[in-house]
Design goal:
Largest sheet: 8 strands, antiparallel
Number of helices: 2
Order of helices and strands: EHEEEEEEEEEEH
């Protein structure tokens, strides 16, 4: 189903201790999207970003996995499980950066969506 378990890396301060919660990070970026506030947050191996258009995404740059968590300011459901030491994410598809375009390939439908206006230069640096 596209789940991948990621163990927290103790060498990363952002993931140290029990303070990090994936659910809280997703809620944060969804709130930013609802406010039409563009943000980019890295949490260990993951990237969350919101845009001024109200979209928000969760990315795994190493494997080019992606899940949209907000569209037009409205939260979208994401299946994930979280414990104190690990989390598993139901990734919705894969992404790639082509110049200024963010290209998303839906895992279930194989539909390809190209989106302009995302922070692609910054995202490309992370992958």
């Amino acid at each position: 189903m596209g789940r991948r378990t990621i163990k927290r890396r103790p060498d990363k301060a952002a993931l140290a201790g029990k303070d990090f919660r994936l659910a809280e990070e997703i809620d944060y970026i969804q709130d930013r999207a609802a406010d039409r506030d563009g943000r980019l947050v890295t949490v260990g191996p993951l990237v969350l970003f919101s845009t001024e258009t109200g979209d928000a995404w969760l990315l795994d740059p190493a494997d080019h996995l992606a899940a949209r968590v907000a569209r037009d300011g409205e939260p979208e459901a994401l299946h994930f499980q979280e414990t104190d030491a690990t989390f598993a994410i139901g990734w919705k598809g894969n992404y790639r950066i082509e110049g200024n375009a963010f290209v998303f390939i839906d895992r279930d439908t194989a539909r390809t969506t190209t989106i302009l206006g995302y922070p692609t230069p910054r995202l490309a640096q992370l992958g």
